[in-house]
């Protein structure tokens, strides 16, 4: 089609949209000019804590983001709309610090009576401020790269509460892990060789766990299943004896501390963890029978969350721990868990602004300023993340079914498909929920959409920036002096 033909057509309206307000979504709704970017202090001063906060906190399904009766979305009592108008740019990530605390407390309470380590999986979200907060709350850290290890050390995590995982750990990173005294999971024959070499270079004996693949089906998307027999992670149980002999052969370099497994992610049935734990304690029995004094069972992470906001009752941290408690106690073991998503996902939204609404063929689209660059889970895994508007749409706004898409030059650039929404005005705020895990940490700068800033609502109801947004100048810096 020639460019002139293209422009001679006015945008087709969604067939279902009838109200005058929606008849030309491109031109009729003025965007209120943004306030100049306030500095942190003025942001702190703008908002006050929600007086009704404590009453909602006691609810077992308390969401830090909730719609009030006037149709405005709140985060810990603050209007998301107000925060959106006050920050320097959109999209941005908005967290609740109290929700992070509540999530950790839920795990701590569940673990009462057990000797345990909560190893937060840094890959889920590597914001330094969040890591510092989790460390202050007593968490350890689970690392999958040398840089995650360096970041954990920067956040002052206790190295003896850190676990270094991975199927391709590099020698230089293993040396650092050995020097600092973190637990290292043995993933393969060559990995064991490298851990031995690292121990010699660091002149330190390394506490290792054998990552065993229990071959329990986690019943999740294949991209996030890890514990099956054809997985690239861990060792097959039939090779266990080879690894035990190899550890025995290196008494100066390796101390076998326990066994580890990680089945997969987004698991919503705790029976799956139970099945794996039964197998794992049997392996521990076999290992102990050979004279090894192993203390730790690490059951990995993987607990799912309520992405659908449908009111479904999903297992809680207590359900997870209770399902393995008797096994752990029966063998007098210390339990390591490695939660990522269930600690951080529900604490955050990606806040976007609606750029416009359009229709092509049978599809209605809400186009927002956020995209697969900032949040790739829907594009990559077809993952559902709940979407809603932050403020009430005009009273005559029609409810329609929309794909919520970004501006990135890919048809895979969608945040949600077939979502029933009130037709939003240009400039309206729209959030993608449960964006605390594997969203910012998987963000890219594709199409030169620079990674967004991050904010959190603090306990006193003030809002603080916890990460600067990346800028065009940051990109240009990579070429300086070349
Ligand atoms: N431990 C190990 C060894 C892991 O591989 C993982 C996640 C975790 C712990 C933490 O699992 P969580 O509790 O967060 O489920 N990008 C995907 C998730 C990949 C998870 C990879 N491993 C997503 O966006 O859903």
UniProtKB/TrEMBL annotation:
* The enzyme's E.C. designation: 4.1.1.20
At the top of the EC hierarchy, this enzyme's class is lyase
Q: Which keywords are on file for this protein?
A: Amino-acid biosynthesis, Decarboxylase, Lyase, Lysine biosynthesis, Pyridoxal phosphate
Residue positions of the PTM N6-(pyridoxal phosphate)lysine?
A: 123
The region annotated as signal peptide is none
CDD domains linked to this entry:
PLPDE_III_DapDC
The pathway is: Amino-acid biosynthesis; L-lysine biosynthesis via DAP pathway; L-lysine from DL-2,6-diaminopimelate: step 1/1
Q: Which family does it belong to?
A: Belongs to the Orn/Lys/Arg decarboxylase class-II family. LysA subfamily.
User: What's this protein's name?
Assistant: diaminopimelate decarboxylase
